[in-house]
Amino acid sequence: MDDYVRSVEAALFAANGPLSLDDIALYAGEGDVAAALASLADHYAGRGIELVERGGRWHFQTAPDLAHLLRREREEPRRLSRAATETLAIIAYHEPVSRAEIEAIRGVQISRGTLDVLMEAGWVRTAGRRESPGRPLTYATTADFLTHFNLGSRRDLPGIDDLKAAGLLDPLDEEALQLQLESGEDED
């Protein structure tokens, strides 16, 4: 392993959180960061820790099949309210999105606390202001959201077919849909 790859490894190991390619270059100096990361990923493949990329940021993590060995206490899963879960899903699939747009999609108003909970968890951030009357704030997901849900990017979010297959969406009533289509044809 050459000195540059070792310096990239040291920067990633000592970092408080995931690093972008530019951050790594700041610590490790001039060199081929992508090649060094590829070398390290190969080196750590199949080991107790692995090098992973989430949302364009790199970090070491425990191999998923060994994570249970390091848990001394049972982790309490973070329970989100239904409103917070729906709001997070809307932001993830429609970002950047304003509060009014979230409320229009949900069909009900959201309390201020709902967005605060998501922001405190580090999963949602303000993404600027919309260029419309009142210049409302817009919201987007964070790199921590991608890391927590083990997503490489937003493109890895499940689609409707994936959600139906997992049983998370009610199957569409084919007969009712067919009746709707037939009644629409009669009107033409």
TrEMBL record:
Record protein name field: SMC-Scp complex subunit ScpB
Coiled coil start-end: none
The species this protein was found in: Sphingomonas rhizophila
NCBIfam families: SMC-Scp complex subunit ScpB
UniProt keywords, alphabetically: Cell cycle, Cell division, Chromosome partition, Cytoplasm
Claim: Cell cycle is one of the keywords in the record: yes
Highest taxon of the lineage: Bacteria
Biological processes per GO annotation: cell division; chromosome separation
Statement: the UniProt record of this protein carries the keyword Cytoplasm: yes
UniProt xrefs under InterPro entries: ScpB_csome_segregation (IPR005234), WH-like_DNA-bd_sf (IPR036388), WH_DNA-bd_sf (IPR036390)
